[in-house]
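Submission checklist for the structure archive. All mandatory fields must be present; incomplete records are returned to the submitter.

[x] Identifier: LD-carboxypeptidase
[x] Organism: Turicibacter bilis
[x] Residue count: 295
[x] Sequence attached
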Amino acid sequence: MTLLNQHQAVGIIALSNGLSESQRQTIEQLEVVLAKLGLEMKWPASLFKKDSIYHATDQERAKMLMDFYEDNHIQAIFDVSGGDLANGVLPYLDYDIIRSHPKLFFGYSDLSVVVNAIYAKTSHPTYLYQLRNLVGSMAEIQQGMFQETLMQGGNTLFNFQPTWIQGKKMKGEVVGGNIRCFLKLAGTEYLPSFDGKILLLESYSGDVAKMATYLNQYKQLGVFDQINGLILGHFTEMQQKGYEPDIVSLVQEIVGNQDLPIVKTDDIGHGPDSKCVIIGELLTLGREEGNGNEG
């Protein structure tokens, strides 16, 4: 099934920290790349930092998103930001409008809060992916996967390679994202149910102490007793600096349940080679079917 059609528009937005002026060239490059793919790019007047890390208030950023949802010419929305501010927009989004105007919504890192909130409130799948990868250090590969998967009905952008840590098979709808940012939803109406889900966790920054803190909070929330499986993405700082215990050993120690299926993949995270995960997708992973994305 083709998800994006040529000769239609996509919206570019920043619901988290405002972009720096040095990133303006990146956005302009994105516009050129998308045009070559046959897509018109629309972006709001406010995208770049004006005051500290802000480019607009929480209410203003939420309105930018709602305007895109109500614009019939826009078929997909890509958030190109990250940082800390995304959860501020959640109370100001109209989930009834989002539900009645289903569109593809993409974001990663701090946008873990928005992609999961939209899924929790509307049951619509969302996409954990950073569009800026199309003009990053692996631009040619990313552009190829983007076009093949989203515009030609393929699957390469969604197909990640897991390594089994424990267990043999897992099945459930995927929730999660950045290990720190996703925790901002704890105790709110925007947190998806974990019952029978597959939890994805990845991280850009953070040492052993921070990872242990986050993992213990998930454990104390009862998450590891509810999910059907755990996907560990790329933990950039942990892996690049070779911290000990490594992230897999730390997870196994804190989870403390050898019956919980766990896989590790470096195909999902903050790297320029990162692939896309569908939040809300029913996913099956199993050794019997091969170590691939079967869902």
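[x] Structure attached
Curator remark: The first strand starts at residue 8 and ends at 13. The chain has a mean pLDDT of 95.
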